Amino acid sequence: MSPHLFTVLFLIALGSTLLVKAGLMLRQIQHVRAHRGAVPTAFADSIGLDAHQRAADYTAERVRLSLVELAVSAIFVLALTVGGGLQLISTLCAGLFDAGSIAHGVALLATLGVVSWLIDLPFSLYRTFVLEKRYNFNRMTPALFVSDSLKQTALAVAIGLPLLTGVLWLMAAMGAAWWIWVWAVWLGFNLLVLLIWPTFIAPLFNRFSPLADEQLKHRVESLLERCGFRSKGLFVMDGSRRSAHGNAYFTGFGASKRIVFFDTLLDKLTPHEVEAVLAHELGHFHHKHIVKRLLVLAPASLALFALLGWLLSQQAFFNGLGVTQTGTAAGLALFFLALPWFTFALTPLMSQWSRRHEFEADRYAASHTQANDLVSALVKLYRDNASTLTPDPVYSGFFDSHPPAAVRIARLQG
């Protein structure tokens, strides 16, 4: 395969993905605006026109920002690949470390990570301190934003750099089958994160306190007993330090499972509604959705690592994407820069699979609590989180991991 063909295939994938994504986003904005003037009949008694219009405006602004991010992302990727940006970074790093060495590879990938973070930073600041603040969701202070950034950087250095070093060493030391070893390390790392996140990493960013409401605690413990779910504790997280959005989730794996409620969620919902929301989350556990996703992710990622192993042996792959010399670190960077533009076509399939899981979790919740309690909880969450009730069906089918509000509630009521 010639370098020119690699270039053409990449540009076709990037251009077509860019056009489809942008077109879907524009559809979403137009559809939400077109239905801004009236609350859907199913929600007319529970959500006022002001709240409906606020959600429409919030949705449109978020999608507009995503459009700008999409354009900047495409330009950035083009600059790094066919524009020669990655080759320039590699040359600069070669002035400090021997070209092709592990130290050179780590420096290259770390520099790319820093540059990517700098590109994303203006969007994070705007989203947090302008968009979210405009709709009264943001509670993040500049000091907390800086603190979070410093902690994330420290974690990246403490965990990411050793992991990168180990991966590059395996790629150099394990011969042609290196990609099997790297895949095993990658899979093991993801499982390790599931184990240590609840007790070691999440507390670096939020405070977790035992659930103090005895009435709610009794309801939740009764639900857990009915569902056969064992956890290491019920916790309330200070989500209100950063946002007014509410949520509940369980996290961890094996013996480290925890149930976590955002304090904002407990402020908005009744005990019956909280119980129903938790029953939905337990539905994911009952149907083994996390395990099923891991079972799909494992062989799919193995196939991708095998593809990467083949591509790293192709000089044309490097030359076609703007890099003059082969190298494991540069190959890794090129692969993960290009991959999202080639796999975008799988997005609606993954979204559909996720929505099916949501329906299964809803049915489970309705069988262990009152369906009407889950409906009323969802209506409050849609209203208070300014989630649009009228998404464009095509956009929703492509991107939304959760079913549209009207469809989801109709099924619960049915």
TrEMBL record:
Q: Which residues form the CAAX prenyl protease 1 N-terminal domain?
A: 28-207
Q: Which residues form a coiled coil?
A: none
Q: How is the cofactor bound?
A: Binds 1 zinc ion per subunit.
Where in the cell? Endoplasmic reticulum membrane
Its primary localisation, in coarse terms, equals endoplasmic reticulum
Task: Quote one Gene Ontology molecular function term.
Answer: metalloendopeptidase activity
Name recorded for this polypeptide: Peptidase M48
Q: Which organism encodes this protein? A: Parazoarcus communis
Mind giving the lineage of the organism this protein is from?
Bacteria, Pseudomonadati, Pseudomonadota, Betaproteobacteria, Rhodocyclales
